[in-house]
Amino acid sequence: MDITQSQEGDKLVVSVSGRLNTGTAPQLDTELSTVVNEQDALVLDFSDLAYISSAGLRVILSTQKAMSRKKGSLVVRNCKPEILEVFEMTGFVDFLTIE
Amino acid sequence: MAPEIVLQFALATMLPVVATIVFFLLQRKTRFGGLGFWPQQIIIGIVFGAIAVFGTEFGINAYGATMNVRDAAPIVSGLLFGGPSGIIAGLIGGIERWFSVLWGRGEFTQVGCSVATVAVGFYAAALRKFMFDGKKPSWIMALAIGVVAEVLHLTLIFVTNMDAMKQAITVVRACTMPMLLCNGLSVMLSVVAAMLLCGESLYKAPEERAISQTVQTSMFVAVLVAFVATSAFTFVLQTSLSSQQVAELLRINIDDVRTDIEETSDANLLATTRKAAERIGSVKAAKTISLKDLAHELGVSEIDVIDETEKIVASTYADFVGYDMSSGEQSREFIPLLDGTHTEYVQDYQPMSYDQNVMRKYAGVAIEGGFVQTSYNEQEFQAQIGSQITGMTSNRHVGEGGSVIVCNAQGKVVSSLNNEADGSLQDSELGSAVKASAPNTVFKSAYEDVSVYGMYTRTEAYLIIAIIPQAEAEFSRNTAILVSSFMEILVFAALFAVIYYLIKRLVVDNIRRINSTLGEITAGDLEASVDVRSNEEFASLSDDINETVAALKRAIAETAARIDAELVYARTIQRSALPMVFQTYPPHYDYQIYASMDAAKEVGGDFYDLYLLDDDHLVFLIADVSGKGIPAAMFMMQAKTILKSLAEAGLEPNEVLMHANDELCANNEAEMFVTVWMGILDLRTGDVRFVNAGHNPPVIAHAGEKFSFHVVRPNLVLAGMEGIPYKQHELKLLPGDTIFLYTDGVTEATDLNDELFGEDRLLASLDARESQSVESICRGVHGDVEAFVGEAPQFDDITVLALRYVGRKDNDEA
After folding, report:
1. Number of cross-chain residue pairs from A and B with Cβ atoms under 8 Å apart
2. Which CATH number belongs to the domain containing residue B676 in this structure?
3. Which of B467, B567, B633, B645 counts the most CB atoms within 10 A of its CB?
């Protein structure tokens, strides 16, 4: 898994590629938990994300909660069909802003 | 030294430094650095070899040798750029030196110089490999390396010229200072340049120094002190020895000449006195002879006749008649002639007793009734014996370049080596030195423009001076000091190298070995053991480290065993929380159910549940907690308990999940969540009211037909967000229908090629067993998943639940 950050206007885009599973989720968790404190607008770009496990969902869930608490925004975008399928199956589509 | 020679040497000294800078820059800034090891070594070797040749060709010829700065180039090359380049440069420089005699380079040192230059190339290579491990030496070490190399070189000149030691020593003495200085400086400055180019500081703080460097520096200081002390001692010893030898040599020569002069003059006067005695005959006859005439005839100034009363009875000087011989010290010496103990006696030229201001030389011969004495005055003395003294020392060599000079009372030189000096010493430096010093002591002066040591004495009014050139006098001392210094430098250098090598081998290398093993241990290889047994200290250190690691290993194993035991316990608890008995009592024939959970770790996060609310209502659910292990297991127990208590309170599935969600959200600091598919089957009708909280859709098949997914839009996972509603759905099972629930451990089971088991394989696996029992279906799917995964590790819990609705016959009303 690779994580890259880039600024798009006032939004910080975090691109995650590869597989987000039990092994790699803690790395994203660490990275996002610092970012959450500094940013009001966060975009997760999953265009190169091949797989997401429940551990990855947990990171997204806690990030969403943290952003909601500080009245910031979190957008998940460019999900592949199989990732989108996971979000749909788990009901995350109701809860996340997916573009 | 002439300015052009200084310039020539300075240039030869600086060339290796410039080459060092050039090669360092080439290696770093250009593609030269990208060349392989050997091409680089060869190019560097050839360039430094050319510099060595330059050193030879621009050396200075002296004493049949060629003074030069040739050795610095191979040393610098070998030390800084690698052994092979130093050896190549040494070979080029040495071979060229061998043939350079053909075009006029010094032949005397041909062998010594050629061999030395080849040798220093190997010397530098060996130092780099064994002493400095390919690193740069410190600058002070570099200076010492240059100096030791030149000492080796000059010693080789001795060794190869044993049959012409004197010339060898002259050559070496002339070469020592310039060659030691220039080659030493050249090597040192090259190292300084290299250090500066590498951005290193010339001074290193203690914590930046390797042990080997500290040892080097301390040992260097100790060796230097020892060298200076022994050299100073040798110098003092040799100086004292040499000045004693000089004094001895001068004294022997002076004594020889003095004896010659005295014997000559004694013999002369005695012969005259004998003639006088013969003519006079006896004391009685003395009165009949004119002593004045006789004195004139014999060429003496005085003739006295003394009788047995010890008084002068007749004399050429009337005043002397009646003089008592025993009244003066000089005259008393003749009295033994009266008692017959001696018949002849001769005195040195000295002041006479009668008048201390008058110098006389007396001799006496016994005659009947007394004795006769005659005497020369100054003029007569010199007239009589001067001719014999003249040229007396013309063949006398003192040492090799020294001589004896004899001057008469007027200060005129009467005898010297080869009779060259025929003048006076009156105004010369030697003359004034004689005046300024005491007889029979060594003084410093100059004679014929050569610095000399001298010693003088006086006899019979003659001044005898022996001189020896200072250079000759000090030759043996200087040679001794030179040779012993060389030997000391070589011995100390060898000692230094051996001790340094031993320390490095015994301490530094061992520390490195231990460090590298410690590195392996730190990296997690607890099986690595330290085994440095070359001495007692390291053996004990090795044992200590191994024991520590062993203790650590034991502690880890014990902890692991404890955790394992606890996990086994936790697994048992978790297992017992899942229903394992699928038939109720009294038995229900209107449905069949089977489920299983296979945790990836000892404890898992998946669970299922099934229980009858009453005779007509069966609750069945499957759930998957995010995460695994102990935290997931604990969360699972909590979720399972809450769901069951809410369901048994008679709530609808959507209400159960809504309340459970709120309760689980309340204290969920770990931010875990759980997906749940929960249904309540009405056993009378086959209606199922269910809620899907983010779980995989179930698969359903009518009797004899194929399985298909039953998809509804799922709600958010449980414990994801507080206060959200859950939508309840319905489906209808016909008798014979089978519903299969599973977790993503089934569909996302992965084989070694990272391929997922997937939904299609699940459907195929189910379809193949549609007609079998629910237990067979569950076991079959699980078996297919395991077969698919093969050798790949299981990452997720695998949980399955199969329910077949049998339905009630009309008369079966419970």
Report:
1. 61
2. 3.60.40.10
3. B467
Taking any CB pair shorter than 8 Å as contact, residues of chain B touching chain A are 624, 626-628, 671-673, 675, 692-697, 713-717, 720-721, 724, 744, 748, 795-796
Q: Domain ends where: B477, B506, B538?
A: B477
Residues in chain A closer than 8 A to B724 (CB atoms) = 94-95
pLDDT of the residue at B810? 59
- Is residue B319 packed enough to be buried (19+ CB in 10 Å), middle (13-18) or exposed (0-12)? exposed
Query: Is A88 an interface residue toward B (CB < 8 Å)?
Result: yes
**Residue B678's beta-bridge partner residues?**
B621, B691
pLDDT over 50 at B309, yes or no: yes
Closest to B607 (Cα-Cα) out of B678, B550, B536: B678
Burial category of B647 from C-beta neighbours within 10 Å (exposed 0-12, middle 13-18, buried 19 and up) = buried
* B716 occurs within a structural domain: yes
What is the number of structural domains in chain B? 3
Cα B389 to chain center, whole Å?
A: 70
**What's the CA gap between B658 and B331, in Å, rounded?**
156
Number of domains observed in the structure of chain A: 1
Per the model's pLDDT, the better-predicted residue between B414 and B665 turns out to be B665
Find, among B527, B535, B530, B503, the residue nearest to B516 by Cα.
B530
Among B219, B131, B186, B253, smallest CA distance to B18 is for B186
Token pair 């004197």 is at which residue?
Answer: B166
Which pTM value belongs to this model?
0.56
Q: Which of A21, A62, A91 minimises the CB distance to B694?
A: A91
Residues spanned by the domain of A88: 2-98
For residues B806, B811, B812 and B814, what is the CA-based torsion angle, rounded to 10 degrees?
Answer: 140
In a domain, B273, yes or no: yes
Asked whether the beta carbons of B807 and B615 are under 8 A apart, the reply is no
Chain centre to alpha carbon of residue B130:
9
The CATH number assigned to the domain holding A17 equals 3.30.750.24
Task: Show pLDDT as tens, one digit a residue, over chain A (99 residues).
Answer: 889 888 888 889 999 999 888 788 888 998 888 888 888 899 999 999 988 888 888 889 889 888 888 888 999 999 999 899 888 888 888 888 888
Q: Are residues B593 and B470 in the same domain?
A: no
> For the residues of B130-184, what is the DSSP string, one character each?
IISTTSPPPHHHHHHHHHHHHHHHHHHHHHTTGGGHHHHHHHHHHHHHHHHHHHH
B414: containing domain: 248-477
Higher-scoring residue by pLDDT: B461, B52 = B52
Same domain for B195 and B254?
no
Judge whether A66 is closer than 8 Å to chain B, CB to CB: no
Question: pLDDT digit string (tens) for B720-773?
Answer: 888 889 999 999 999 999 999 999 889 988 888 888 899 999 999 999 998 999
Strand partners, B60: B67
Backbone angles phi, psi at B255, to 5 degrees: -60, -40
CATH number at B314 reads 3.30.450.20
Q: What is the pLDDT of residue B234?
A: 87
Query: Do B304 and B328 meet the contact criterion of CB atoms below 8 Å apart?
Result: no
